[in-house]
Amino acid sequence: MLSRMEKVVNCFSKRPDAAVRLLCFPWAGGGSIHYARWGNLISSSVEVYAIKLPGRESRAKEPFAQSMQQIVDEVVSALLPELKEKPFALFGHSFGAMTSYAIAEYLKRVHCLEPVHIFLSGISAPYSKTRLCAPKKSELSDDEFLHWLTTVGGTPPEILANPDILKLFLPVLKADLHVVDNYKCSRPESPFLSCPVTCFDGKEDIPHDLQGDSVEEFSPADGKNMFT
Fold it and tell me: Which residue range or ranges hold the Thioesterase domain (predicted)?
């Protein structure tokens, strides 16, 4: 029987003597394999823990997470001893970036732990009015949802053109977007972490609201403004 940590973590290259652990969280609809491969390429001083979420990969038979807090509770419960053991950093892209923020906030508030660095990619600040004002993508009809996927880009066209693959892919993606749509947090009154934060955006991406200051108007068909 798998331990709680083995259930939640995909680690291709175990490095018990590594100086730091890097926890990687998947994008909406994504799995752990891509980040787990980093463990074979990255410095031997870093041990990569790619997080496996319910409803996909070896956890395909489990129900999807219904809330961000459910994800946070499971990950922290499984990894707390390891997080106390040595320094750790967090990386997440899109939905994974929001998960990284939620994990960091909870660890600091509840366990007085914080990462040595956070890397966030392709996301507006979680308290951004731009994000909070955007239509809920998980509530779109299938036709509207596929139109949004096509417009926003990032999904391989062979997936969008294959009905059998879509049947497997869409439920996972919509489940993650349901978590995003219903995740709310307030802007901190003061910085709650002392660690550095590095933010990434693609050269061809629409710039994200990293500071959480801007407000934009949206229409349901305006896919490029519906950040994941």
Answer: 21-211
